Predict the 3D structure of the following.
Amino acid sequence: MIPLIHSLILASILFVIGLLGIMIRRHFYFLLLSLIIMNNGVIVALFAASSYWQQSDGQVLAILAVITSLAEACVGLALMIKLFYRRKTFNIDSLSEMKG
């Protein structure tokens, strides 16, 4: 069995990588990818805590987090397609120029 601290360190590393990706990149695809990496860090933490305390509540919550992550990815990809259709770029800074 993997110790809880190792799993939480992995979850923290994933979360920080995603957070840095959001703060550094201005490309919409990388922003969406960074959000998914952050969600994966949270899911790893939920599964690790659930396994450590031998409760199924964390696993149910992690499955709900996976479902919301998939819905977020679908909406983000739809927004990305719409942005490319209108602006022919994936740069987020062009969103501030949209009107209407």
